[in-house]
Amino acid sequence: MAKQLIKNIKGLVLAGENFPRFLKGEEMKNLPILENAYVAKEDGVIIGYGRMDEWEGMIDWRDVEIIDAENQYVLPAFCDSHTHLVFAKSREEEFVDRIKGLTYEEIAAKGGGILNSAGRLSEMTEEELFEAAKDRLNLVLSYGTGAIEIKSGYGLSTEAEIKILRVIKRLKEESPIEIKATFLGAHAFPKEYKENHRGYIDQIINEMLPAIAAENLADYIDVFCERNYFSVEEMEEILQAGARFGLRPKVHVNQFSIMGGIQKALELNALSVDHLEEISDEDIAALKNSDCMATLLPSCSHFISIPFAQGRRMIDEGLAVALASDFNPGTTPTGNLQVVLSLACIKMKMTPAEAINALTINAAYAMGLEDTHGTITVGKRTPLLITKEIPNLSYLPYAFGDNHVDKVIH
Fold it and tell me: 334-375 pLDDT, tens per residue?
């Protein structure tokens, strides 16, 4: 591959050496921007950057592809650390139910929600799932995503969960970006196990996990710890079983209720705790003293009209915060992280700098990619996002609804 040089950059964002693994609290306010800059890559690896008046003689520029980014910004491409991108069909009928006043839990009780998606997925072939997921992936790439985590969880049987994870594995092999796979068999209890939780948990532990490990299909394990879904005790048993197969937890907690799931997830070495629309003083104190990333999903709150996570409070209390899309057919049918960026600023009172840090360096950490993604650092493989011509970075969340991405260099 020829070298690539992006020159005349209006502002090169998050370029530097010796960044911490993630930013927390006051650190999230700092967003370094190098003006009138260049950055160079070779074979996908960043090999240099700096001011335009310093670039001559720094690198051998023979056989180089040159991109002129005058009046444009260059950032590390966004990392989306929480998605459910592999699914069967959309669920717009539930959208109408919510407009009519039904809650998420009421829709689930009448056969909608996760069980609806699981039923539809069982009717699709692996190839059909792959083609649909590939189209969605290409769409989110056009919005600036440069790495993505994808969960299973719409299978709820050994055969169907394996099918989803095989699709994710194929996406990994064929996509230009880094993809992480998370096993979420504990997303809901299938109808036939509604009164037999023990039976389904045994299936997860004794059938699904060994089969997943045999094909090396997952990087992480997740549980939906919530009332009417999986209890803290059930989550603990499943996550401990996953740990025996080398799967670190990234878990759904505190979406609708506070059950002690955050503290238990921290005990079990969770990399991230996600949702957190409900949170207590005890939860915040526990997170403050941990290396676990608090991952917030504002587009989910927006779409199903539940409270937004207290992003402003969490940062002011010294926490590390990441943002993600939660792209899924039921509660967040978009993977556009520019929308997430705007909602974080508008609804959670995060500054543009904090929100960009939450979608880059902190989101990379929440995926286990802090060594390769999230900052523009020599030796990293960070994909680069080139904006369209914009007046400043605050314009990204300000002009919501527009696609401000010109291109992404993978």
Answer: 999 999 999 999 999 999 999 999 999 999 999 999 999 999
pLDDT over threshold 70, residue 376: yes
Q: How many other CB atoms are found less than 10 A from the CB of residue 256?
A: 17
Fold that domain 78-366 belongs to in CATH? TIM Barrel (3.20.20)
CB-based contact 298:347 (threshold 8 Å)? yes
pTM above 0.90, yes or no: yes
Amino acid at 394: S
Structure tokens at 243: 């740990």
| Cβ contact 107:97 at 8 Å | yes
Domain residue ranges in the chain? 3-77+373-409, 78-366
Domain 3-77+373-409 coded CATH 3.40.50.620: no
